[in-house]
Amino acid sequence: MLASGIRRIACAALVALLAACGSAPVGPGYYRVERGDTVFKIARNNRQSVQNIVRWNNLSNPDAIEVGQVLRVEPPAGTASVRTSPTPRTGASASAARDNADATDASAGSSAAAAPSISLVWPTSGQVIRNFDGRDSKGIDITNAAGTPIVAAAPGTVVYAGNGLRGYGNLLIIKHSGEYLTAYAHNQTLLVKEGQSVEQGQKIAEMGSSDNDRVMLHFELRYQGRSIDPTRQLPAR
């Protein structure tokens, strides 16, 4: 029982790490997303319009906010906002309001979420068989032969090395400067340990099929806990 409890705690901690790389308090005018939150709910609780939340945070896909993501909920200095009534809606009017908010969310915020640039190298060679979409795919999948070298996409520190998160197999998570994380899943072999510093291009693992039905690397890039398309930061090839 004790071992099972420890495993559950470890997995919960890893999920939090993937989502936010820590849970430090956020500053005034910001909110950290919690489980069950939606943009509509956050906007309502902060007496803001959905359009404000989408615009201030450059949300390209408002339906894909993640636990641990930090959102601005008060206007930047000199920016006008549209406040909404704090009175909760019930029944049919609440349903209609949510439908309208969802429609607004889908059409608002067409630009990519703002994040500082990070210089990455490709973590492995091979064919990209699945691209990032921000909803069903939080990263990219690259296939090649078992044992193909996996390298660190940027310099940083290994903050997780293990297989405690179901669906990721043998997983590495590396923390980089500028609140970035990279994750490397389904490895055959892990070659670095937690707490170890790694250089960009350093071999850190070998490609495998752990907790997966084919040999591949699942690679994720996260900024402030939010999944972003890694190909935007990778060189063309």
TrEMBL record:
Q: Which family does it belong to?
A: Belongs to the E.coli NlpD/Haemophilus LppB family.
Against InterPro entries, the record matches this protein to:
Cell_wall_metabolism_enzyme (IPR050570), Dup_hybrid_motif (IPR011055), LysM (IPR018392), LysM_dom_sf (IPR036779), M23ase_b-sheet_dom (IPR016047)
One GO MF term: hydrolase activity
Protein name per the record? Murein DD-endopeptidase MepM/ murein hydrolase activator NlpD
**Signal sequence annotation:** 1-26
Record field: compositional bias (Low complexity): 92-108
The record's keywords, sorted A to Z, are:
Hydrolase, Signal
Q: Where is this region: Disordered?
A: 76-108
Comp. bias (Polar residues):
81-90
Species for this entry: Paraburkholderia unamae
Which intervals hold domain LysM? Answer: 29-73
